[in-house]
Amino acid sequence: MTDFTPCLAPDRSQPAHAIHLVDPAGYDDWLSRQPARHRAAIAAQRLKPTGYASAILPGDAPESWSVVTIVANTASLSPWCLARLAETLPEGTYRVEGHEPGVAMLGWLLGQYRFDRYRSEPPTGDRVLLTGEPGRIDETLRLARATAKVRDLVNTGAGDLGPAELEAEASVLAKTYGAALTVTKGPELERGFPMVHVVGQAAGRGREPRMIELVWGRPDAPRIAIVGKGVCFDSGGLDIKNSAGMRLMKKDMGGAAHALALAELVMQARLPVRLHLLIPAVENAIAGNAFRPGDVLRSRQGLTVENTNTDAEGRLILADALTRAGEEKPELILDFATLTGAARVALGPDLPPLFTGDDALADALLAAGKAHADPMWRMPLWDAYDEMLKSDIADLVNAPEGGLAGAITAALFLRRFVPAEAAWAHLDVFAWRPVAKPGRPKGGDAYALRAAWAMLKARYA
């Protein structure tokens, strides 16, 4: 994982290159007050007052240069306003002139994220940002590391990250924070989590399905459950995906990556909760014993599911995990899953749909998303669409015919396995950034993670 620790430091008046922040509204006035050599440098670099644009300004000595960058509003910085600088400036130490970097420290760190597991070139040096608010450093580092964990796990090829590797990630967390880890597989999985077993049974030796559970915190504390879909590769099963659809299916465990990262944030901060992390980990593979369209599956809860599409496997394994979570009577359940293409059609890659029947929980998550530039959009659990889940031969189907309202019907399917008394939110995350943005490179990425963490802190701190 990228080591972000050296990239933030307390400001003790040590030598540093100045970063001047200018917004479009104040640009002309600022430019008019600059010395001739700065105006000449700006003209030579063709700086325009547009977002993330920057220019190097000469100093009195070769090593005393500074930089100006354009931000949307100097009075209200975003997490990403310094991220492009962190990607492009030479290694060295920097200070934001006249401002505390505040929330922009996160983008500064994530602009220096690198996934280099498969690369041979050496890493670049660090760009260090000074802050007069050293108390914010630890939390910013925790958020950056949580985001990097999601990115690293999603970016890793499926050949190097299967159910056993997800188990290993959970084991490290358990040992680090003194949590109890339980892993169910083999005959016990078939008996206790039958839909997890059937989805993953076609995977080869060493990639067997399993249910991973971690429990941490005082037994008398409020109980919360965090559930993450852990499909380490999704071929589509016998309803096989085409090559384009399969290309990014290493990211189908993105929900598990989010759940692991959020669970670690909870334990690092010693939030006063009883945490139950659940990851059903499988590979949806093709073999002679793969589950088939038309099979009727029995769930842990007891409901039977007519399998109408082997490529709608994520909701099957989540159903068993949500049932298990509900058995411990949690007051709150959050699940993260790369669940439906319909969610991407509706809202695109950047905006995860939020499904919940709890208005207070929805308001808290949406407010946290807005406050932390980590947005989501509430979608309806439209009761009238429940009839789409009817089966002629079983209690329900996993994928209705026709493909209409696909993200909603998937959420309604999950709702069948959630206890009515628990506050529950389902986040259908993409876990992938198809186009790079400052501080957010193309590849695996975290969505709604910071918002969920902010909500938990506000609810339980």
Q: What is the beta-strand fraction?
A: 15-25%
What is the number of domains?
2
Rg from alpha-carbon coordinates:
24 Å
CATH class (first level) name of the largest domain: Alpha Beta
Q: What is the number of E strands?
A: 20
The general outline is elongated
Q: Round the mean pLDDT to the nearest integer and report it.
A: 97
Low-pLDDT segments, ≥5 res: none
Output the CATH topology of the largest domain.
Aminopeptidase
CATH architecture of the largest domain: 3-Layer(aba) Sandwich
- Share of helical residues: 25-40%
| CATH superfamily membership of the largest domain | Zn peptidases
Structural class: alpha/beta
Main β-sheet: number of strands, strand sense, barrel status?
9 strands, mixed
- Measure the end-to-end span: 28 Å
Question: Helical region count?
Answer: 15
Protein name: Leucyl aminopeptidase family protein
Organism: Sphingomonas qomolangmaensis
Keywords: Aminopeptidase, Hydrolase, Manganese, Protease
Pfam family, one: Peptidase_M17_N_1
What does this structure look like?
InterPro entries: Leucine_aapep/pepB, Macro_dom-like, Peptidase_M17_C, Peptidase_M17_N_1. It comes from Sphingomonas qomolangmaensis. Belongs to the peptidase M17 family. The chain has 461 residues and is an alpha/beta fold. The protein has two domains: 108 residues, 3-Layer(aba) Sandwich (Leucine Aminopeptidase, subunit E, domain 1); 318 residues, Zn peptidases (Aminopeptidase, 3-Layer(aba) Sandwich), CATH 3.40.630. The chain contains 15 helices and 20 strands. Strands 7, 8, 9, 10, 11, 14, 15, 16 and 18 form a nine-stranded mixed beta sheet that branches. Strands 1-6-5-2-4-3 form a six-stranded mixed beta sheet, sandwiched between helices. Helix 8 packs antiparallel against helix 11 and helix 13 crosses helix 15. It starts with 7 loop residues before the first strand and ends with a helix.
